[in-house]
Amino acid sequence: xGLIVQKYGGSSVGDVERIKNxxxxxxxxxxxxxxxxxxxxxxRGETDRLIGLAKQIMKIxxxxxMDMILATGEQTTxxxxxxxxxxxxxPAVSLTGAQAGIVTDGVHTKAKISNITPERIHGFLEEGxxxxxxxxxxxxxxxxxxxxxxxxxxxTAIALAAALKAxxxxxxxxxxxxxxxxxxxxxxxxxxxxxxxxxxxxxASLGAKVMQSRSVEFAKKFGVIFEVRSSLxxxxxxxxxxxxxxxxxxxxxxxxxxxxxxxxxLFSVPDKPGMASRIFKHLAQASVNVDMIVQNVSHAADxxxxxxxxxxxxxxxxxxxxxxxxxxxxxxxxxxxxDEDVCKVSxxxxxxxxxxxxxxxMFETLSEGSINIEMISTSxxxxxxxxxxxxxxxxxxxxxxxxxxx
Amino acid sequence: xGLIVQKYGGSSVGDVERIKNxxxxxxxxxxxxxxxxxxxxxxRGETDRLIGLAKQIMKIxxxxxMDMILATGEQTTxxxxxxxxxxxxxPAVSLTGAQAGIVTDGVHTKAKISNITPERIHGFLEEGxxxxxxxxxxxxxxxxxxxxxxxxxxxTAIALAAALKAxxxxxxxxxxxxxxxxxxxxxxxxxxxxxxxxxxxxxASLGAKVMQSRSVEFAKKFGVIFEVRSSLxxxxxxxxxxxxxxxxxxxxxxxxxxxxxxxxxLFSVPDKPGMASRIFKHLAQASVNVDMIVQNVSHAADxxxxxxxxxxxxxxxxxxxxxxxxxxxxxxxxxxxxDEDVCKVSxxxxxxxxxxxxxxxMFETLSEGSINIEMISTSxxxxxxxxxxxxxxxxxxxxxxxxxxx
Lengths: 406, 406
Fold this sequence. Notes:
The first copy, chain A, is of the alpha/beta class.
């Protein structure tokens, strides 16, 4: 007998039938002798409907009121999920984020959980209830309703699992788990049985859509072991947990491809202290997220100048170009060239720490495929390269073949 | 400078344009130097949509969860109304029933307000905000969300006006106020400038759709003066307040017609103690509301038996007949006759207390129109008669002509 937190996302509770399906799964978990806390999102489409209503009233809706209206989405789902359990004869109680004791800071629409007082949940569990908690929301100490921003329901589940000292946290989604690569790109990609928090974080930041980084970071910080699995079948999913020595035997856990990159190059930037910081400060002020940065050594000792390349999301490219052009006089580069026809391919694995020659093998693999590398960036457990967009899928498959054991 | 509570019902906030219209009215009230608390209902149709969702999950949804889902309706409206004010540059804060300090008992779907702690509202008002409160809802001392049942938003407004010691409470609706009669029946019916709580209560119980009795009772109990007026124009409405001596100069305040009545007659009921109580106890247990009751004297001293007539709502007629037939052996009446072709016409006015001959004039008026009276029921400030359905409108017009000064 354990305490299990289960989270079901918007597509898992997308309509009445799916909510009944969730209730059946919850029921099975309970019948197996577990106490169950269920976290649900708003029904798919509901959040967009509410945002649409708000924008008809006000072009840029005020954030406190946005949270007030958005919070109704999950509140509807918790009531329906509790009813579906009642209809099966299972005692269940729904709680809003506020009622569940989820306290956040006051940054409306992207609040951070500051603490959870789970006494009420424990009380309802002791009475034999399944407890259904609205994901994505909480309240400030002053009693204002807040929402947690993108991926907020995952965060609610993992934070509750930590506060309740749950034995397991299950994140139900529409995929079977975390894969060695996107199966739409690499046909023989396989589901991982386990992955470390750090590898999961690198994959999240590389564009793998399974979970937001913040939820994984929260789980890592509080040591919450969680499983990512499908709500549409009963296959076991992927367990995400602290790195252990056996994980190091695998050099590369996964390969990822991010087609959403664009490259900018500033030629002949005067090689003076403070130049880079000035450029990237302006970009940050314009809310442009810069990913990889590469700067070469100076061309000549007498007239020191360098070429500076960096990548941004494609959606930010036009804005980034405007910011850079505006500061041409200030910085004094000779030319700005932007390039949308690039992509980023990465390999990730904690085993890289203890295995040498990983980068060499990666570059060799790409070279054998006649794929030219334009930029390189590395972290302790990740190597990323920027290449031509047209060669992205070929490169991903080649690296998957070279590094991943099937 | 005063404190005004304004309530806008579901049709007044039925769509985005109407919500903007409400915001403009609130703005005008504020510009006139008042502090404003606004109570809003769910957008028209929204409550039905939510009930429909719930019933797809569970035929008879559990009541705690029904309250959880229904409460989202008003929560959506308060956020949109606050945004509409923000869009006009007016500081405004939305509060759910729970956040506004509305505490109720635990009778889900028809909770009673037990007390209100208005400190938070006062705080926001002091800071210069318009405060928007979700009608129809509150929370129990244990923190469960409740709803107040039909007419709940009116009740919220009047209870808040009492708790805040407001100078005025305005109930905005889709009619101009309280009329001497339904203008669809009597063309020259006119709007009343004022009416006493008791007259308003009698009219409410007689089927006038303006307000539920419980809200008027609450206002009477706490001496809340309120105005019923239209959200679609700027005409002054009807002030509802404590009876005062000048009101007695008007004998009849209003005439009402209720076509939703059916009559049952039990012939030859044995005239023994306890018969009537037994009959009406069974009807009450079956949730049949009985309105008028008339019992004649016994037919003969040697075999005492009486005829018993009463009226119920048309929707309850079949059920009432079943209940009565089932107890035929127990009661021993000779025959049950039901009649749907009846209606009830009433005259109401506190002036009846001090004016004699009102009933005589009413019966004379009907007699002059060759209208036969089948049942009569009186209270201190009301006389009702049951007549043929086909003669209802004619009788209503005749009584209006006889009693109401235009």
